[in-house]
Specification:
With 274 residues, this protein is of the alpha/beta class. It is built from ten helices and seven strands. The protein folds into two domains: 184 residues, Metal-dependent hydrolases (TIM Barrel, Alpha-Beta Barrel); 65 residues, DNA polymerase, domain 1, CATH 1.10.150. The protein binds adenosine monophosphate, fe (iii) ion (2 copies) and zinc ion.
């Protein structure tokens, strides 16, 4: 059983439509795949239908933008009810904030680089959730940088003169909201924070007390040493360790199935469904 619990489509900042992500998942030899677009569930129907046609097990997921003392923290959630009013209100507020924030970044960049809001909207091509990757794509299209990664190294990184943060709910509030909607919350790449900041044990323990079920351990942004410490932490806090690719199509080097979740750990997640 090859289980990859973290992928993105063009509904957020992936480069493939949901059905294309499912087709690529079959090619990569996956048996189970979760679609976790940032702050949106708009890809679920298309992905689910495609997965069914391919004989692939589809897990409906989402990567929720949250904050801990001003720092951006990502929370995965699986199987939550998409019509839950708490979930809908939370992600709509974040998506709205992301639009204004992206416009603010573009205004700052436009002082020094050939970039317009229209070009970013064009690059986003119908995405439900705006993010820095769409700004990166506009910079690539304008010939300012060769690829997304290059845009993030300098211009779009936190701390850059062009960086603007966006509103997001507190981590524990997001955990509570997803759990109340029947979801299974899993902390995404907890030691891969911007500027290399690791979430503290205390923060993770508080999230666990709020209903967190798992933590992403095997992720390309974690070193072997960090994975070891996260696995120990998962055991100590009785959290389910997961592994995944965080696939974004051609937007990132991450390849489907490069990290996987053990079937026994996946079963623990399933058992926690609300
Ligand atoms: P935002 O949601 O606007 O804060 O942007 C964060 C997103 O940018 C993450 O979800 C990643 O998908 C993407 N990202 C971060 N760093 C890089 C990078 N070095 N190369 C490509 N994409 C990146
Ligand atoms: Fe992303
Ligand atoms: Fe993330
Ligand atoms: Zn992700």
């Amino acid at each position: 059983m090859r289980i990859d619990l973290h992928t993105h489509s063009s509904v957020s900042d992936g480069t493939q439509a949901p059905r294309e992500v499912m087709a690529s998942a079959v090619e990569a030899g996956l048996d189970v795949v979760a679609l976790c677009d940032h702050d949106s569930m708009a890809g679920w129907d298309e992905a689910s239908a495609a997965a069914e046609a391919f004989g692939l097990q589809f897990i409906p997921g989402m990567e929720v933008s949250t904050r801990v003392r001003g720092t951006s923290v990502h929370l995965l959630s699986y199987w939550h009810r998409r019509v839950d009013p708490g979930v809908v209100a939370m992600v709509e507020k974040t998506r709205d904030a992301r639009v204004g924030r992206t416009q603010a970044i573009v205004e700052l960049l436009a002082r020094d680089y050939p970039i317009t809001w229209e070009s970013v909207v064009e690059q986003a091509g119908g995405a439900q959730t705006f993010g820095r990757p769409h700004v990166a794509d506009a910079l690539v299209a304008a010939g300012v940088v060769p690829d997304r990664s290059a845009a993030f190294t300098e211009l779009l990184r936190p701390g850059s003169a062009y960086y603007v943060p966006h509103y997001a709910p507190e981590l524990t509030a997001a955990v509570t909201t997803m759990r109340a909607a029947g979801g299974v919350p899993v902390l995404a790449h907890p030691y891969a924070g911007r500027s290399g900041a690791e979430l503290s044990d205390r923060v993770i323990e508080r999230a666990r007390d709020a209903g967190l079920v798992g933590i992403e351990v095997d992720h390309r942004d974690h070193t072997a040493e960090q994975r070891g410490r996260l696995r120990e932490l998962a055991t100590r806090l009785v959290l389910v360790p997961t592994g995944s690719s965080d696939y974004h199509g051609t937007g990132k080097p991450n390849v489907l199935g490069e990290n996987l979740t053990e079937p026994a750990e996946f079963a623990r997640l399933e058992a926690a469904r609300g």
